[in-house]
Amino acid sequence: MKGQYVVQQGDVCKYENFVLSGCLKTFYVDPEGQEHIVMFAIEDWWTSDLGSFINQAPADFNVQCLENSEVAQISFEDLEKLYLEIPQLERFFRIIIQKGFASSLKRIVNNFALPAKERYLKFRVQYPQIEQRVPQYMIASYLGMTKEFLSKIRSQLIDEQS
Amino acid sequence: MKGQYVVQQGDVCKYENFVLSGCLKTFYVDPEGQEHIVMFAIEDWWTSDLGSFINQAPADFNVQCLENSEVAQISFEDLEKLYLEIPQLERFFRIIIQKGFASSLKRIVNNFALPAKERYLKFRVQYPQIEQRVPQYMIASYLGMTKEFLSKIRSQLIDEQS
Questions:
Q1: Does B68 contact A at CB distance below 8 Å?
Q2: Whole-model pTM?
Q3: What ipTM does the predicted assembly reach?
C-alpha cells in the first residue's frame, strides 16, 4: 500500500526486499524532522537498510512505498541458509552489491564535484523512470538540494530548450 | 613508493589491490584540476576503482600511494577464475563489499544531513588511524569541505576542550 513502511528507522531491518511492482524510497529523518532520501527502488530492484540487515542492528533509514507496491521479502535467516545451500547466490548478490557500491562512490564524488544542474541532468539520464514517477521535491532531496533550487534549475533548462 | 599511482583516471583498472602496508587515497580530479577524495585505504583494506574494475572500463578515479606502500594485486581475469575455483571467495567479497556499500550510503546521507563539525567528529571516531596518517587538507577533501573550514572546526574543538 502507498505510504506503507517496509523498514522503520530504529527497528532492525529483518528482510531484503525485491520489488515486483511499485516504487519505494529509502530515507533518513534527521532530529529536526527533515527527510533525506538515500535511494529509490522500482521494479526488479532490491531495497532494504543494508547496514541494518547485514548486522541485524537498528536501522538508520526508513523504506516506504511511494506507490502501491508488491515486494518479495527474504529474511536474514532464510537468506543465510540459502547462501549455504546455493553458493551461486553469493555470486548473484556479490555482483548486484558491487554495482550498487561502485555507483554510490561515484555519487559521493559527484555531490562534491559537480554543479547542481549537472547532477540533476545525470540523474535524469541514469534514472529516467524514477524522474517520471517521483515528486520533484523527493528528487531534490535525493540530490541534496532544496526543492526551490531544483525548480530553478528546471526552469533554466526549459528556457534553454525553447 | 610514495606518490606512485596504482590506478589512473581514464585507464582501465586492471587489479584489485590488497594493502599489505602503507596508505593510499582514491580520488577524482575535476576539469578545473581540483582533487576530490573518495576514500583512503590502509593495511588490510582493499582498494581500486571498483566501477572500472568490474566493468573493465575507463576509471573515474585515481588511486595513489600516500606512503611507501606494499600492495598485493589480483587481476580481473585471475579473480574471475578464482571465483569459479573457490566459491567461498564469492562469499568473502560479498561480505566485504556489503559493508563498504552500507557505509557509503550512510556517508551520502551524513553529507546532506550532518553539520560539518559532526561529520568530522564521526570521521575521527570511525577512522582514528587515518586521521593520524593523512594530511588535514586531504581529510577536508574527503569530508567535502575546504581545508580552511576544517581548520576552523579543529580550532573550535580545541577551544571547547580547554
A1: no
A2: 0.93
A3: 0.93
